[in-house]
Fold this sequence. Notes:
Elements: H1 3-22, H2 32-35, H3 42-69, H4 84-111, H5 115-124, H6 128-157, H7 163-177, H8 185-210
Helix pairs in contact: 1-6, 3-6, 4-8, 6-7, 6-8, 7-8
Amino acid sequence: MNLKTLGSYTWRIIKFILLGLCLILPQQVFALPYILPQNFSPLATNILMWGLLLLGYALMLVIFSYQFKKGQPTSNKIFQKLSNQDINAIITGFIVLFIIKIIYVMLTSQAGQTQNDQALQQMFKLSTNAALMMFLMTAIFAPLCEELLFRGIFMRYFFPKNTVLAIFFSGLVFGALHFHLGDIFWTLLLYCALGWVLAYYYAVCKIKLEK
């Protein structure tokens, strides 16, 4: 590996880390009620929280989409009718993810909740407004951003010509960044398995679109 290649990979790693840090920025809106002055009205606080949350994720999606599309060959096959093979792949992927979820619930019910789940439950208990924001963040905004980052951007930045390594390390990084100290080891493997399944189906769709 020459210096030019090493420098290129180093810059990609730095960019990926910076993009990863962007994921946690919109979540900081939940700290606003504790930071703002006590005489700040609840209505103004909620409006500010919603504004910053939506603006934050809108900017992230724009940045992530740009990084994802940057250098990608243009294709007229992005929008296409699903074939029977596509439908079977979607159903199979859903079943695999559902099985992983069942295993995850079984393990965590025996060893206690992960710190990630505990944090989410605490957020849901704050207020109806915070619960709705958390639902939108965990069900829509965060998954979209994570899909672009951990699959689209990561697999294009690293190992673009080696699909197996791209899938393996994409899932590994995804699992590692969702694992917290204090969680059981199986939690790491389950998060990695989730990342590997998602990366595999992303790779399958990507290969099909490029044909």
